[in-house]
């Protein structure tokens, strides 16, 4: 009966073990899966509806704004998968840290060469257990360390989410910039073609020189060249935007994109308050704090290792018909070392972690201040550009009235329109610079200053 019970125990232990399942990676299959991604999948719809807490009817949306595109990026971008996987590793570390040491069993058989005759068996059989008992709260310190590292990994997911959002905003702004620039250049091309026509007519009747005519044609060709370059930039910007989303470029074909989030800029009222919020809420700063807490727990663990663990060793021996029971106790003797080296290393790592946090905090303050100053300067430039556009508009309106009254010719009106278009382009460049400055300031504080886009810290999980 004892033999059968022992066999059943061993079988149960073996059945409870994890088994390996091979999951080979296939580059061709991974590439095919990527090429199959679209902005119409049911999994993406569920992710958007859960993250934004609203229903999308019809699906897919007629227009994709920054908010919905940001959610799609958090769903598809591979950097998010890497960050989530890292968090999964850290969470598994908590299970590892909480594991208790297993007991061990030893079996011993002896054969006696001299039994003294009689019916006594020449064999002696015995077994003993080794039950380890951790002391000084070592297991608790290991769990605390793993939990702090897991929290740091979770915050790294939020940091990765912000980086994905930041890249998406930059690429979306770049697409918006070149698409609007294309419109401006098309308008300029139309004006320059009309001016070139005027000079051709004048040259035909001898009212202008061939140099003026050729110069106007040269301006037309320069504008056409700029327009062609802009159209190339539009194609490249679409590819970059698809990369930020984590989808192939063809997934954006037929997609209408809204640029409403870039309609305006804002004034920053209190940079000190923004800095204070960033220093207490940036994911990378909070992650650094969690890593420092983990170094504290690691030091506590090494200090606790000064105290030896206890091993209980109960045993049984059957000795030629005699039952013998024993109870052993093993304790390590801290004679030659008391874990001084690991304690010093843990102390040094704690100091290193504190130094890294202080350095990060200082760099964040510098980043916010520089971004705030730069953004303020772009707003000033934008105001100057607005004044220039207003002046050119007034001048154009004046020349238009003079033209209507017959006091000015068509060439003067077209040239005034060209100057007004140039002022609009200059103003648009200043506006894009302001939007870039706003994005840099948002990157510095790790939160949107416009209430646009999902909050990355709440988007750590996803389902396919």
How would you summarize this macromolecular structure in one to three sentences?
With 464 residues, the chain is an alpha+beta fold. It is built from 11 helices and 4 strands, in the order αααααββααααββαα.
For this entry, give a set of tags:
alpha+beta; Outer membrane efflux proteins (OEP); disordered C terminus
Structure description:
The protein has 464 residues and is an alpha+beta fold. The protein has a single domain (99-112, 122-449), classed as Outer membrane efflux proteins (OEP) (Up-down Bundle), CATH 1.20.1600.10. Helix content is 65%, strand content 8%. The protein contains 11 helices and 4 strands, in the order H-H-H-H-H-E-E-H-H-H-H-E-E-H-H. It has helices spanning 2-15, 27-35, 42-52, 66-76, 78-98, 138-204, 210-245, 271-281, 283-304, 340-404, 410-445; strands at 104-111, 123-133, 310-319, 322-331. The chain has a 4-stranded antiparallel β-sheet with strand order 1-2-3-4, with no helix packed on it. Strand 3 (310-319) and strand 4 form a beta hairpin. Helix 6 (138-204) packs antiparallel against helix 9. The longest helix is centred in the middle third of the chain and has 67 residues, at 138-204. It is elongated. The relative contact order is 0.13. Mean pLDDT is 89; it is low at 452-464.
Round the mean pLDDT to the nearest integer and report it: 89
How many E-type strands?
Answer: 4
CATH class: Mainly Alpha
Low-confidence stretches: 452-464
CATH superfamily label = Outer membrane efflux proteins (OEP)
Can you write the helix and strand succession as a string? HHHHHEEHHHHEEHH
* CATH 2nd-level architecture: Up-down Bundle
Here the CATH topology equals Outer membrane efflux proteins (OEP)
Nearest-angstrom radius of gyration?
A: 37 Å
Number of helices: 11
């Amino acid at each position: 009966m004892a033999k059968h019970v022992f066999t059943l125990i061993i079988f149960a232990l073996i059945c409870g073990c994890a088994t390996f399942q091979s999951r080979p990676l296939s580059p061709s299959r991974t590439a095919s899966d990527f090429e199959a991604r679209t902005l119409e999948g049911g999994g993406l719809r569920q992710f958007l509806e859960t993250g934004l807490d609203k229903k999308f009817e019809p699906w897919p949306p007629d227009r994709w704004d920054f908010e919905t595109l940001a959610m799609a990026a958090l769903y598809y971008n591979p950097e998010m998968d890497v960050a989530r996987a890292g968090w999964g590793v850290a969470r598994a570390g908590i299970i590892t840290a909480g594991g208790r040491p297993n007991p061990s069993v030893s079996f011993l058989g002896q054969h006696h060469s001299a039994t003294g005759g009689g019916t006594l068996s020449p064999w002696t059989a015995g077994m003993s257990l080794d039950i380890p008992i951790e002391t000084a709260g070592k297991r608790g310190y290991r769990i605390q360390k793993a939990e702090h590292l897991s929290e740091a990994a979770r915050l790294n997911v939020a940091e990765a989410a912000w980086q994905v959002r930041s890249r998406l905003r930059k690429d979306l702004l770049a697409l918006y910039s070149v698409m609007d620039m294309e419109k401006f250049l098309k308008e300029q091309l139309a004006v320059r073609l009309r001016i070139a026509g005027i000079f051709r007519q004048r040259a035909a009747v001898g009212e202008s020189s061939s140099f003026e005519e050729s110069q106007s044609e040269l301006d037309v060709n320069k504008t056409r060249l700029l327009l062609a370059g802009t159209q190339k930039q539009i194609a490249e910007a679409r590819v970059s935007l698809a990369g930020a989303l984590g989808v192939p470029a063809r997934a954006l074909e037929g997609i209408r994109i809204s640029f409403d989030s870039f309609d305006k800029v804002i004034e920053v009222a209190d940079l000190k308050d923004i800095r204070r919020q960033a220093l207490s809420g940036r994911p990378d700063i909070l992650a650094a704090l969690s890593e420092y807490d983990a170094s504290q727990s690691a030091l506590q663990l090494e200090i606790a290792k000064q105290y030896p663990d206890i091993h209980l060793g109960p045993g049984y021996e059957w000795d030629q018909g005699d039952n013998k029971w024993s109870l052993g106790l093993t304790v390590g003797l801290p004679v030659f070392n008391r874990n001084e080296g690991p304690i010093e290393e843990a102390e040094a790592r704690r100091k290193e972690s504190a130094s890294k946090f202080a350095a990060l905090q200082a760099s964040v303050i510098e980043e916010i201040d520089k971004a705030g100053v730069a953004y303020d300067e772009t707003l000033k430039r934008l105001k100057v550009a607005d004044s220039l556009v207003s002046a050119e508009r007034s001048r154009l309106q004046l020349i238009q009235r003079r033209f209507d009254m017959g006091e000015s010719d068509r060439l003067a009106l077209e040239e005034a329109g060209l100057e007004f278009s140039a002022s609009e382009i200059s103003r648009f460049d200043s506006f894009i610079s302001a939007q870039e400055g706003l994005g840099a300031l948002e990157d510095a504080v790790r939160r949107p200053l416009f209430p646009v886009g999902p909050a990355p810290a709440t988007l750590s999980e996803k389902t396919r």
